[in-house]
Amino acid sequence: KTVTYDFSVTWTKGNPDGQYERKVIGINGQWPIPQIDVDLGDRLVINFHNGLPDQDSSLHFHGLFQNGTTFMDGPAMVSQCPVPPGMNITYDFIVDQPGTYWYHSHVKGQYPDGIRGAFIVHDPQGPYKNSYDAEIILTLSDWYHEQMPVLAKRFISYLNPTGAEPVPQSALMNDSQNITLAVKPGKTYMVRMVNMAAFAAQYVWFEEHTMKVIEIDGIYTEPMDADMLYLTAAQRVSVLITTKNDTSKNYAFMGSMDQDLFDKVPDGLNPNVTGWLSYNSNAPLPAALPVPEFKPLDDMLLIPYSRIPLLPPADLTVTLNVTMSNLGDGANYAFFNGLTYVRPQVPTLFTALSVGDAATNPLVYGRDTVPHILPHMQIIDIVVNNQDPGKHPFHLHGHVFQTIFRSSDDAGNFEGHLESEYPKVPMIRDTILAPPGGHVVLRFRADNPGVWLFHCHLEWHLLSGLVTTFIEAPMELQRNTTIPENHRALCVKRGILMEGN
Ligand code: C2O
């Protein structure tokens, strides 16, 4: 079937932490923005209108491969021109992956001002479909009282030479600081968690209820029990929670921002958000929980339900060394191999489609896009050497990857590894935490021609340039891609493309 949404983004008001009302970007005058719900195999059509008078916009569907539809991916100046005020774009594609996703603006640092919501692909044939009675969506996020353009300007500035990221005022669950989930006794719930934060990872745990992980980032896993989870910005984890038979009592659950991410923890910051599993509306709600002893589940232990084996050894290894330092303007930037990403003048996809055979030459994309060419169907290893003392959640568009190795903190650069020592059935996801001072090795097959970003999903580091562009199978892409007219029109309007060209 076809599912259609008409979305107009506009300014509205919000006060999710109950402390401060501010302007937020909503959809159709509503904030929090609507959840997108589709069934596996549906065609999704979103008629998107930018009703903001003062900002460009776009939508990205985080975690969807967009196989054959790379121009529907959404990042501004990568696969489309941003939508200027008053203009429209139609996103139109088949959703052929089940699970828990989210959607967000992919223009500068826009989404933390409000354009981020859950995107659920229901799967009537899923392996766990008979294992639960109902679904609950639990979004996690962080919240700033100031607007992103203001914060961004202060962040990228000679007045902030260390690159200290703005610290959010509050942690949120379901865009609130006060959430009650009504549950029935003796039932099993599938709780889909999505961290839509700009910055903060969250620890999540439930009072006296064990979580059984069954999905991460749209990948079903073998069930695994967890007392606590850790979700970086952009990660999703679905769990089964079975309720107690006794309804005399209610239980708390907690989200707690990882304060290791913050350069300086402001006085009086409350890093926590408390929610309640409500069995009995007459019983009291318990107090916030203390931070427990237990450790969060290590996602490297999770085994995909599909049991897809380790891919063959890489044909091509892309090594990305992460550093941070100042440029001539005195502001702090982030670098992959000494290059900080700058948005090109023409969307990279349009370049890939218009330069003929030169599309396999990284130089045509401009070095500030930090381009890497991935030959069609080759096995790619991405080695991220995180030479920075901070944690970074890296996300690859257009793919999931096998995480075949992750070092401990401060382990230094990757120096090779025996194939036989990689897990036989590696964990798979689309956003991975790179340890401070250590490294991760990610493996995937270049089976999705397109232009795909790989970036740190801390919105601050997207702004400071921790972004690289993968140009995957450009010749195959040229053979099979026609950009829709209304996408081209955005670039014509901006004077980037000529009419009829
Ligand atoms: Cu959530 Cu570049 O994406």
From TrEMBL:
One GO term in the molecular function aspect is: ferroxidase activity
The record's Gene Ontology cellular component field reads: high-affinity iron permease complex
| Matches recorded under Pfam families | Cu-oxidase (PF00394), Cu-oxidase_2 (PF07731), Cu-oxidase_3 (PF07732)
Annotated GO biological processes are:
cellular response to iron ion starvation; reductive iron assimilation
**Subcellular localization, per the record?**
Cell membrane
Q: How does it sit in the membrane?
A: Single-pass type I membrane protein
- Plastocyanin-like domain spans which residues? 9-125, 135-281, 341-474
Write out the entry's keywords from A to Z.
Cell membrane, Copper, Glycoprotein, Ion transport, Iron, Iron transport, Membrane, Metal-binding, Oxidoreductase, Repeat, Signal, Transmembrane, Transmembrane helix, Transport
**Where in this chain does the entry annotate a coiled-coil region?**
none
- Does the keyword Cell division belong to this entry? no
Reply yes or no: does the keyword Cell membrane apply.
Answer: yes
* InterPro entries found in the cross-reference section: Cu-oxidase-like_N, Cu-oxidase_2nd, Cu-oxidase_C, Cu-oxidase_fam, Cu_oxidase_CS, Cu_oxidase_Cu_BS, Cupredoxin, CuRO_2_Fet3-like
Main location (coarse class): membrane
Q: Which family does it belong to?
A: Belongs to the multicopper oxidase family.
Q: List the protein's name.
A: Similar to Iron transport multicopper oxidase FET3 acc. no. P78591
Per the UniProt record, the source organism is: Pyronema omphalodes (strain CBS 100304)
